[in-house]
Amino acid sequence: MPRPPLPTIVHLDADAFFVSCELARRPELRGKRCAVGGGPQRGIISSASYEARAVGVYTPMPTARALRVCPDLILLPHDNEHYAKTSQAMFDLCETVTPLVQRNSIDEGYLDLGPCACASVAAVEAKVRGLVARIWEELQIPVSIGIGTSLLVSQIASKLRKPRGFVTVPVGEEAAFLAPLPIEQLPGIGKKTAEEVKARGLRTIGDVVRKTDSALAGILGRDWRQVAAWARGIDTRAVETERAAPKSYSQQETFLEDRAFGDFEDIERGLKRMLDELLVKLRADGKRARTLTVKVRYPDFTNSSHAQSLPEPSDLERPFYPLVGDLLRAAWTRRRQPLRLVSVRLSGLTEGPAQLDLFTSANEAKHRHLAAVVDRLNANGKKPRVYHGYDL
Ligand SMILES: [Mg+2]
To answer: What are the structural domain ranges in the chain?
Structure first.
């Protein structure tokens, strides 16, 4: 007899990760108001203990303001190397449960327990509780868990009862689970968009389901179909392990506040930083890319993008860098409108090292050597972080 379907997608999200990493090696600080961040240059809180959050410290918050609302705040300097090691150890533990682990960021990711062939929801939950206990025992990192049938549902579930949350959404109850939640719980609906769509009658995720298609299209613009599917708990994305060969490499940033055309140079710099990070991954995977795409999203959720291809695929910054500003300009056609999100994507991937011609090879080899050195420095977590485009 076929097994009944089970919720096997798990979203694991460490609680106050940077602070938790610090508390793991300085347990005397447990229960105190502390935060990571706030060096002289980066005067921003990047992680705050729940005790500090209780008195109004949040991330990202300027350190000066955090110290005003919480004068006894204990500030801890960033230690990227320590956080990266802890993250690796945490995901290694995840991989002892299932081979299907997708890392989304340093402190959160998805697991698919499908391969575990659990017989019941209780068996799925027991496996996950075992993992949570091991992460706590071995690393002293508290995590929150969401379990569901899709990435979307598990991700929303894990955020509901932080810290140390554990929420399971049974099969078939996805839409009912989502319905009462505020609209901004859906991915891509930021604070500002949420205000706009709430004013037009979309306060909860359930409101999306109740609206007609044409009303939704009027409120949400081109993305309405995606939002309508999500609101019903429909999400067909699968957990992607790093072992699966990617077809493209992309990264996006949603701004805290929408950015106007006057911020063009700043946005361009941000795109180059994202491109740097993609190229590090590309090189680590032994790939080259031919096409660079820049996408922008306006506050009404409409997107616009522009792409350009190189004559030869590359894994170096040099040929891609000059394209970034032009592509941003070409994509940003509605200049009077601010942007809520930008992304960069590298596609047209080829395996293996570049074929160098005789004239460019010496220069190319020099840049490749420098890129490798920088990748190693970054991998070792040496500070300050080196960005290829600025330092080569
Ligand atoms: Mg987290």
So the answer is: 17-78, 182-243, 249-380
Q: How far apart are the first and last CA of the chain?
A: 62
Strands 143-148, 9-14: pairing is antiparallel
Q: What is the CATH number of domain 182-243?
A: 1.10.150.20
Decide yes or no: CATH 1.10.940.10 for domain 17-78. no
Nearest CA-CA partner of 304 in 276, 342, 270? 342
For 347, list phi and psi in degrees, rounded to 5. -140, -170
User: For position 59, what pLDDT does the model report?
Assistant: 87
CA 346 to ligand 1 center in whole angstroms: 27
Query: Whole-angstrom Cα distance, residue 357 to residue 362?
Result: 9
Active site residues: 108
Task: Quick: pLDDT tens for 63-120.
Answer: 888 999 999 999 999 888 899 899 999 999 999 999 899 998 899 999 999 998 899 9
Tokens of 97: 């449960």
Q: Which residues contact 234 (CB under 8 A, 6 or more apart)?
A: 150, 174
* Beta pairing partners, 110: 11, 102
Reply yes or no on whether the pLDDT at 173 is more than 80: yes
Tell me the CA–centroid distance for residue 12 and ligand 1, in Å. Answer: 8
Q: Which parts are annotated binding residues for Mg(2+)? A: 13, 107
Helices (H), 140-253: 151-160, 174-178, 191-199, 205-210, 213-220, 224-231
Is the confidence at residue 171, as pLDDT, over 80?
yes
Do 250 and 295 touch, CB atoms closer than 8 A? no
Q: What is the CATH number of domain 249-380?
A: 3.30.1490.100
Are the beta carbons of 267 and 331 closer than 8 angstroms? no
Instruction: Tell me, in angstroms, the distance from the centre of ligand 1 to residue 72's CA.
Output: 24
Question: Residue 326 is encoded by which pair of tokens?
Answer: 């032009």
Is there a shared CATH topology between the 17-78 domain and the 182-243 domain? no
pTM of the complete model? 0.63
